[in-house]
Design a protein that fits this description.
The chain has 685 residues and is of the alpha/beta class. Helices cover 49% and strands 12% of the residues. It has 24 helices and 17 strands. The protein has a 10-stranded mixed beta sheet with strand order 6-5-14-13-12-7-11-10-8-9. A hairpin with a 2-residue loop joins strand 16 (659-661) and strand 17 (664-668). Helix 12 (394-421) packs parallel to helix 15 and helix 20 (608-616) packs antiparallel against helix 24. The longest helix has 58 residues, at 71-128. It is elongated and about 155 Å long. Residues 189-194 have low confidence and may be disordered.
Length: 685
């Protein structure tokens, strides 16, 4: 018919439909799976036979014990190997003597049997008085042998046909028991296994099916099917914990990268399995939650349920939540800078505020707070903090910067006082509570990324935001991180999206306690917590946005960590705004009246360019090292840590960059004076 496709085209389409049909794929998987069972079963049977006839099993167990550092176990297997070797030698010697012994035994047996039959024939002949009865027993035995031969001849044919099939069935059974087939051919796990108990066989099977060839082969070669890799499975909070010693050739990083696949093999979601690296070499620690347990709330904070909760910065710990084992998680905040990061609307402010509310119950602690979001999250600290800045504008950033700079000035004053006091143990608890000059001060900035990204520039041409040496906020934070903790002046910051642009590296790494809620990428997680924590298993980027609100991954000092661990995961208590106001009222009742300011008294601003001109004096030019030394002598608090890079940045911004003269970098007085004159003209205009 016209327009009808050729027969070969219609046939090709039919073949393609058949090949892509689900029934065809199911049948193909069935054939491959059961064929693989037979092949793998033959390999397993051969390996078992080889292990039974040689020392391979003993040597393998000795290597495993030595790799795990279990030398006593290795010696025990060596003793067993020696006993096996001696027994095998004895069997071989016995085998050499076997033909002679068999011949003797056969001759003795035949003679004994013949004698017994003749004796029985004699008895029958006497009893029957018939000499023919003498051979009847012998003939009876001969007839029995003939019928046995006939029976064997009848069944031999079917046995030769069924024997190979029975052997294949046995091999198939062995392979099926070990699930020794490609993972893509195995049937999908039944829904009834979701949330099933975690047993050693479940853990070993899950590790075997991760797709790591050396791990899979090592498990199959182990005489105990991989059970020797596992430590004891311990109950740990709302889940279980087990240490896995990996075989040689398998790195912990390979297992960490397959967290999702391991969780699915364990019939869990990815967020219900945590992989960390303990102190033992070549070991991973698996924490596996009970199915759905992490979606259950953990209960209210002790600050809400117990109105008499005590707080002491020096001896106490802030109740923050629960770790994955279900134990109370508390932080020591004594002389520790803190940084908490996370995506927007994931509970960052609530987690940071919970720590501040506990510490506010210690009447010796002074708070100076800048909330650069300004939606009332910190309103309850009005009348509790001495400074409370609320708002996201450039002016609020300027106020927050000046709050930090006032903190730097207080820090420098305390350093001088501490030196004059002659104290040998720093600021002690007694000094902090009895001497108002050394009471703890917490400078808290929420949404600190607003400060780093602020474009405002001061009258001295120095920007408030940014990440350069000329940035006032950045430099104040650096100085506080360098020396503030020694004199009880600490900096807490909360920020979104930790990147180099809105959270410089020097500020990130200056925090003693680094905590992170859910993040978008591993790169952000490394910036928030550091490479060591992420390499050790910290994974805030694996948390679920919107579902794991308030769950933080904490690294650094101040939190109790298991030996060898670099981080821990904490599910923080949520304290609502209403309850936060009640706790703040309790803190206010313990204190005398506190006047809260919306900004600090503006300190005298530093003018680096004018100070450089003062250091130059009448010199036409001066070496940069001499300029730096002169600045440090003029204002140690401001210029003590300046480097050539800091000096160059300021001079280049003013158009008076250093230059080389006789091979050394120098600063020109005429250029500096011209820059000052130009700046004055711009200000006058």
């Amino acid at each position: 018919m016209p327009g009808r496709p050729p027969v070969w085209v219609r046939g090709g389409r039919s073949v393609r439909v058949v090949l892509t049909d689900d029934r065809t794929r199911t049948a193909a998987r069935l054939v491959v799976r059961h064929g693989a069972y037979v092949v793998a079963g033959a390999g397993i049977a051969a390996r078992r036979a080889w292990d039974g006839r040689t020392l391979a099993r003993y040597e393998r167990m000795m290597r495993t014990a030595e790799a795990a550092g279990q030398h006593e176990v290795a010696m025990e297997w060596e003793v067993r190997a020696a006993a096996f070797r001696a027994a095998r030698h004895q069997r071989r010697m016995d085998l050499l003597k076997a033909p002679q012994q068999v011949a003797k035994s056969a001759a003795f047996a035949v003679g004994t049997a013949q004698g017994a039959l003749l004796l029985l024939g004699v008895i029958l002949a006497i009893a029957e008085k018939d000499i023919a009865q003498l051979v009847v027993p012998t003939m009876t035995v001969i007839d029995l042998i003939r019928w046995v031969a006939v029976f064997i001849g009848i069944v031999w044919g079917p046995l030769t046909v069924l024997g190979p099939w029975l052997g294949l069935l046995a091999l198939w059974s062995v392979g099926r028991h070990r699930q020794a087939a490609p993972a893509w051919t195995l049937p999908a796990a039944a829904t009834a296994t979701v949330g099933a108990p975690i047993t050693p066989s479940v853990v070993v099977t899950s590790l075997r099916d991760l797709g790591i060839a050396p791990l899979r082969n090592a498990i199959r070669e182990m005489g105990d099917a991989g059970a020797g890799m596992l430590g004891p499975i311990r109950i740990a909070g709302c889940g279980v914990e087990v240490d896995v010693t990996l075989p040689s050739g398998v790195s912990t990083e390979e297992v960490q990268k397959r967290r999702r696949k391991l969780a699915e093999n364990l019939s869990r979601h990815e967020h219900e399995v945590f992989i960390t690296i303990p102190q033992a070499a070549r070991t991973v620690r698996l924490w596996i939650a009970d199915s759905g347990a992490l979606d259950e709330p953990i209960g209210p904070s002790p600050l809400v349920t117990d109105p008499d909760t005590p707080a002491d910065l020096y001896t106490g710990r802030a109740p923050w939540g629960q770790d994955l084992r279900g134990d109370a998680a508390a932080l020591s905040l004594l002389q520790r800078h803190l940084l908490i990061t996370g995506l927007s609307n994931q509970g960052k402010t609530a987690a940071l505020r919970a720590l501040a509310l506990w510490l506010a119950l210690d009447t010796s602690v002074e708070f100076r707070i800048a909330d650069l979001k300004g939606v009332g999250d910190w309103r309850m600290f009005d009348g509790l903090a001495t400074v409370l800045i609320q708002g996201p504008t450039d002016q609020h950033v300027i106020d927050a910067t000046e709050m930090l700079e006032a903190g730097v000035a207080e820090m420098e004053r305390r350093i001088e006082l501490l030196e004059q006091s002659g104290a040998t143990d720093g600021v002690t608890r007694e000094m902090a509570r009895t001497d108002h000059r050394f009471h703890p001060i917490v400078l808290l900035v929420d949404e600190a990324q607003v400060a780093f990204m602020c474009p405002a520039v001061g009258e001295d041409k120095r920007p408030y935001g940014g990440t350069k040496a000329t940035s006032r906020y950045f430099m104040a934070a650096r100085k506080l991180h360098n020396q503030g903790r020694a004199v009880n002046v600490t900096l807490w910051q909360g920020t979104q999206d930790p990147t180099n642009e809105n959270l410089p590296k020097l500020v990130r790494e200056g925090a003693h306690i680094r905590a992170s809620l859910v993040l978008g990428t591993e790169e952000q997680a490394r910036m928030a917590l550091g490479d060591k924590a992420v390499d050790g298993g910290a994974a805030p980027h694996k948390l679920r946005q919107g579902l794991d609100k308030g769950t933080v991954v904490v690294a650094g000092d101040g939190v109790k960590l298991a030996p060898g661990q670099s981080s821990t995961t904490i599910r923080t208590h949520f304290i609502s705004g209403e309850h936060a106001a009640e706790i703040a009222d309790r803190a206010k009742a313990r204190r005398t009246g506190v006047t809260t300011l919306s900004a600090v008294e503006r300190p005298e601003t530093v003018d680096p360019l004018a100070d450089i001109a003062a250091v130059l004096g009448d010199e036409k030019r001066m070496r940069t090292q001499e300029v730096l030394a002169g600045l440090a002598a003029r204002d140690p608090g401001e210029y003590r840590e300046w480097t050539f890079s800091d000096l160059k940045t300021v001079l280049e911004a003013a158009g008076a960059a250093p230059y080389k003269s006789d091979g050394v970098q120098v600063v020109s007085r005429s250029k500096v004076e011209s820059a000052l004159q130009l700046r004055a003209e711009d200000a006058g205009a």
